[in-house]
């Protein structure tokens, strides 16, 4: 996926690397706990995003510590020994924020009238380094995730959500006037995307609806916006009654099976006359 994403988008001037937590509470050898993140438990993914468009350029999941690698000196003490500006916010509790920058070389204040006296580095960071956090919020807003105990499936859901967000970003950049005045623009895009993805498979399945329930066939007709000819599906049998495995598979007991549901005037084309003998 990392080999494809950069080909679809040219990153702007400001990019950001940050961490995103894909929520997961099942068993996973590299599951992490982060008290400051929503959900707290999950799989950590480091990603590079464009801070303006929120396009995800590349991703790398955190798979635990590498025991064979040499110990790196990237601790807070080692990093802070070469800091550029020291800034203490006025909120309580007061903490000393040490900031590094390869673009700024002084401790200039952004706005003299600002009571918090934020530095230029601090203001620049707030304006350009929130890309990953925004991606995290947007992915949680509309997500394909379902309950699962398998961590590869959970990561797959997250990749689908990120791919859909990237698709929305590139689509809006190419067609900026598409549903521009509607507040649910992204939701409409995801609905249209889902229909485009499932329509070919629905067309193929509609050729033979044998064994499908009526609610499923009705949903397929809603997607295709036409009636489906049930040439090989269920059909009416005039005359004698019979038992069908489609009629009795949801029964909770033998009494319900043979007394309430088993005698039907509709059987599937697979069973027809032989359904009574096959179910007994």
Automatic annotation (TrEMBL):
N-terminal signal peptide: none
PiggyBac transposable element-derived protein domain sequence ranges: 2-80, 122-168
InterPro entries associated with the record: PGBD
One Pfam family recorded for the sequence: DDE_Tnp_1_7
Stated name of the protein: PiggyBac transposable element-derived protein domain-containing protein
Source species of the chain: Periplaneta americana (American cockroach)
């Amino acid at each position: 996926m990392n080999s494809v994403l950069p080909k679809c988008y040219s990153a702007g001037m400001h990019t950001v690397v940050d961490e995103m937590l894909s929520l997961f509470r099942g068993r996973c050898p590299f599951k992490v706990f982060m008290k400051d993140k929503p959900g707290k438990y999950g799989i950590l993914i480091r990603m590079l995003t464009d801070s303006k468009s929120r396009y995800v350029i590349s991703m790398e999941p955190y798979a635990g510590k590498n025991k064979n690698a040499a110990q790196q000196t990237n601790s807070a003490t080692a990093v802070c020994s070469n800091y550029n500006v020291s800034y203490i916010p006025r909120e309580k509790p007061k903490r000393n924020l040490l900031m590094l920058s390869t673009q700024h070389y002084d401790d200039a204040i952004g706005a003299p009238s600002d009571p918090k006296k934020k530095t230029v580095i601090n203001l620049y960071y707030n304006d350009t380094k929130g890309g990953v956090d925004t991606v995290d919020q947007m992915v949680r807003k509309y997500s394909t995730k379902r309950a699962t105990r398998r961590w590869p499936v959970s990561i797959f859901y997250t990749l689908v959500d990120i791919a859909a967000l990237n698709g929305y970003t590139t689509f809006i950049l190419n067609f900026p006037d598409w549903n521009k005045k509607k507040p649910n623009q992204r939701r409409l895009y995801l609905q249209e995307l889902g229909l485009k993805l499932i329509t070919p498979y629905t067309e193929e399945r509609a050729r033979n609806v044998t064994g499908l329930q009526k609610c499923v066939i009705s949903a397929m007709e809603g997607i295709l916006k036409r009636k489906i000819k049930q040439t090989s599906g269920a059909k009416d049998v005039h005359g004698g009654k019979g038992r069908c495995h489609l009629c009795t598979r949801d029964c909770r007991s033998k009494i319900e099976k043979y007394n309430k549901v088993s005698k039907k005037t509709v059987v599937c084309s697979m069973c027809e006359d032989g359904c009574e003998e096959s179910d007994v």
